[in-house]
């Protein structure tokens, strides 16, 4: 099959496509059409939901299979390089780049506790570091989010987004720090505490739709989340929702922000 | 997230994005049975279906951001992944040969569907009624495509009908099912916890 499918040609294939019952070349052509046709995308989503209902089975998840899955996760969280760079031994001759790296490392504790001003200065000063992404993810998983967030803030490749209160655009209530691999943090959160049973929820605007990026808790200070990489999201919003989060925001945003290209 | 057992599916996925293994375990507890059952229905019970199930959940662990709550329930997402993988497996040549060798053995152990209790009898009944009400040609085409893992061209050859006819019957039947299930209050949204 050559060339792009028209909407009419694509829609004829949607039923079979939703059931994985098209040839590989047709699947490619339909997928290309879906990328630019919300109506067809919507129909495929609905037909897949119907297929899922047909597949409905009451069987319990086999417990022994969970052991295999759990073992298959490995000891490292996703996206970690298996060979993180080693630190130069104490007293050894270090290259400027390595020295730089250890300087950042030493600063971490201080940064985590430091004021916004100091962090802002660091973000400008620190040069590119090797293998940072894997370390960051590992830090987030093993050493706690604040340390990883502090390191992310010091990463010159990070994009920063200021979230400002809706209705008071000069009041910053939190910053987002987003790394090229999609690892991201909300830092310096200063939103008013919500009552028990409520949570802040972070949203990204993607292809005109609000996509949930994660729950922030009742009083977020530093929270890790993840976004698609490269970042298709240019605008973010925060809403207050019932604890557990919602699929579709139920209230207007309390804070919002946009990626600003520098 | 405090307790995975009380978290919504989207909240579970968020927690999985933060490397929470208890959240993945809970997602598996909720949906692993359906995923495994669908894979087994396509591939037969055994290691192939186990592999597909394992891959689906490890993929959710590695790339949780691929699940977009705006596009449907987590269960639909997982079943869609499982179906695509099972069909890939079915269409690979070596697998096809192995399966043919096995078919004779396993025909005797059919009854797979019977031994599994419906997850929700009311829902299962609605689905059964909706499927039974489909025109016969549409029902057969959908079953051969979805549970047989055949392309619509293969279905056309099996049924001795024109490809274009089968293609439109599949879509018409699926849309009919959707309308019917919605009328009875069975909607994708109800899948959410
Ligand atoms: Zn279209």
UniProtKB/TrEMBL annotation, chain B:
Domain of life where this protein originates: Bacteria
The keyword Transcription regulation is assigned to this record: yes
Protein keywords: Sigma factor, Transcription, Transcription regulation
Transmembrane stretches, start-end: none
SUPFAM superfamilies: Sigma2 domain of RNA polymerase sigma factors (SSF88946), Sigma3 and sigma4 domains of RNA polymerase sigma factors (SSF88659)
Domain RNA polymerase sigma-70 region: 28-94
Stored Pfam families: Sigma70_r2, Sigma70_r4_2
Domain RNA polymerase sigma factor 70 region 4 type, residue spans: 125-177
Record carries keyword Transcription regulation: yes
Family in the record: Belongs to the sigma-70 factor family. ECF subfamily.
Name of the protein in question: Sigma-70 family RNA polymerase sigma factor
Native organism: Aciditerrimonas ferrireducens
């Amino acid at each position: 099959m050559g060339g792009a499918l028209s909407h009419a040609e694509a829609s004829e294939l949607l039923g079979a496509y939703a059931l994985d019952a098209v040839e590989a070349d047709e699947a490619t052509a339909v997928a290309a059409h879906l990328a630019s046709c919300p109506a067809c995308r919507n129909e495929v989503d609905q037909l897949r939901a119907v297929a899922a209902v047909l597949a409905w089975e009451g069987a319990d998840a086999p417990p022994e299979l969970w052991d295999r899955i759990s073992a298959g996760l490995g000891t490292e969280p996703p996206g970690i390089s298996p060979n993180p760079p080693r630190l130069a031994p104490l007293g050894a001759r270090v290259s400027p780049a390595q020295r730089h790296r250890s300087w950042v490392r030493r600063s971490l504790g201080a940064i985590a506790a430091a004021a916004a001003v100091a962090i802002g200065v660091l973000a400008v000063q620190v040069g590119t570091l090797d293998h940072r992404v894997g370390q960051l993810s590992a830090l987030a998983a093993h050493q706690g989010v604040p340390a990883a967030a502090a390191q992310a803030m010091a990463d010159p490749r990070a994009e920063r987004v200021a979230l400002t209160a809706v209705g008071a655009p000069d009041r910053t209530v939190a910053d987002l720090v987003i790394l090229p691999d999609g690892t991201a943090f909300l830092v310096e959160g200063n939103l008013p505490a919500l009552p028990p049973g409520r949570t802040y929820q972070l949203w990204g605007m993607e292809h005109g739709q609000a996509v949930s990026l994660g729950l922030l808790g009742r009083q977020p200070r530093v929270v890790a989340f993840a976004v698609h990489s490269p970042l298709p999201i240019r605008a973010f919003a925060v809403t207050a929702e019932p604890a557990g989060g919602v699929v579709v925001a139920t209230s207007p945003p309390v804070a919002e922000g946009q990626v600003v290209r520098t | 997230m405090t307790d995975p057992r009380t978290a919504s599916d989207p909240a579970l996925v968020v927690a999985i994005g933060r490397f929470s293994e208890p959240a993945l375990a809970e997602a598996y507890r909720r949906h692993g049975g359906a995923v495994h059952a669908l894979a087994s229905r396509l591939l037969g019970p055994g290691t192939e279906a186990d592999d597909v199930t394992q891959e689906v959940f490890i993929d959710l662990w590695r790339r949780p951001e691929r699940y977009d709550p705006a596009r449907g329930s987590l269960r639909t997402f997982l079943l869609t992944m499982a179906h695509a993988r099972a069909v890939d497996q079915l269409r690979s040549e070596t697998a096809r040969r192995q399966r043919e060798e096995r078919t004779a053995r396993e025909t005797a152990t059919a009854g797979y569907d019977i031994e599994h209790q419906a997850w929700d009898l009311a829902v299962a009944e609605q689905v059964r009624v909706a499927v039974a009400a489909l025109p016969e040609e549409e029902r057969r085409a959908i079953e051969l495509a979805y549970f047989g893992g055949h392309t619509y061209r293969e279905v056309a050859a099996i049924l001795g009908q024109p490809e274009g006819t089968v293609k439109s019957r599949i879509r018409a039947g699926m849309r009919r099912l959707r309308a019917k299930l919605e009328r009875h209050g069975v909607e994708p949204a109800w899948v959410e916890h």
